[in-house]
Design goal:
3-stranded parallel β-sheet; about 35% helix; 4 helices; about 120 residues; alpha/beta
Amino acid sequence: MKQEPHGAAGEYLRGQVRIGDSLDVAAPRGTFFLNESDEPVVLLSAGVGVTPVLSMLHALVQMHSTREVWWLHGARDGSEHPFALEARTLLARLTTVAVRSRTADQQLMIIKEWNTRYEGGYLPS
């Protein structure tokens, strides 16, 4: 198991769970959907949270979408982004990609730009 520094789940598993303990587990939860629209779309993720937005990126490519796509993925560096090559390949197939993966500080600047450009858009400033 990979443990992130200060990661709540990893710290709990390493500190509390012992061999022979039983755990209740479930599939990832949440509702993720891509609205059909001509409006710009922000695909925002970090770490393994990339999987739902990566499937949305696949859908946009399959639809030959002309929507402006803002791809924001937070990772410490390229070694921490297991789907980087796949994402770059998909993004290259779209004609209106505004942003690609960035560091956390760069992402904050990009989110502020989005808010300014789209008058508040969908993300808090």
